[in-house]
Design brief:
- The protein has 188 residues and is mainly α.
- It is built from nine helices and three strands.
Length: 188
């Protein structure tokens, strides 16, 4: 992470979701010479009152103002949150993007649960993170991993997997060298 800051000539971070367990963990991990700024709830509420819409966008607006040219805005989403999120956060720095929510919970006592798991009784973070690791890190066949999950959880994980770039086939690059497309036109 220090390399990412140095590349952009930044001296620190503005961390979104300042009261989250993930930010507690990041603050404990970051070097003492890294400046940390947190959007104040009062300012976010004021911006949200003016802009309306979603509170997260108001928080991003405050974070961008705080960042200026010296700080980088970072989103503390975990690997678990990113897996279940229909869209990636727009921030270019996701320092916990490869850290499972269960690891955050083990280190600081709690973790932000993805919205897809909030009201699911069978959504044990250890089990979910284990399935995600099997699918994404170890490349285990999805049908085997999903079969090991309770039906309610199986559907949620399967839907998230179907939305993910991991499941979508890569599109081939077809160079356009002239009027015809190589490999598609019958005369080539």
């Amino acid at each position: 992470m220090l390399d990412a800051l140095a590349e952009g000539d930044a001296v620190g971070l503005v961390l979104l979701r300042p009261s989250s367990p993930e930010v507690v963990l990041l603050r404990s991990w970051l070097a003492t010479d890294v400046e940390i700024a947190l959007p104040a709830d009062e300012e976010v509420d004021a911006v949200h009152a003016v802009l309306g819409g979603n509170r997260g966008e108001a928080e991003r607006a405050v974070a961008r103002r705080l960042a200026g040219t010296r700080l980088v805005v970072a989103h503390p989403a975990t690997k678990t949150e990113l897996f279940f999120s229909p869209m990636l956060p727009p921030e270019s720095l996701l320092p916990l993007g490869d850290v499972p929510a269960s690891t955050v919970r083990d280190l600081v006592g709690s973790a932000t649960r993805p919205e897809a798991l909030l009201h699911r009784a069978s959504a044990d973070l250890d089990r979910v993170d284990s399935a995600i690791a099997e699918l994404l890190d170890r490349g285990r066949d999805a049908s085997h991993v999903l079969a090991d999950l309770p039906p309610e959880l199986r559907n949620v994980v399967s839907e998230a997997l179907d939305r993910s770039s991991f499941r979508r086939p890569a599109r081939p690059v077809v160079p356009k060298l002239g009027h015809w497309t190589v490999g598609l036109d019958p005369h080539l």
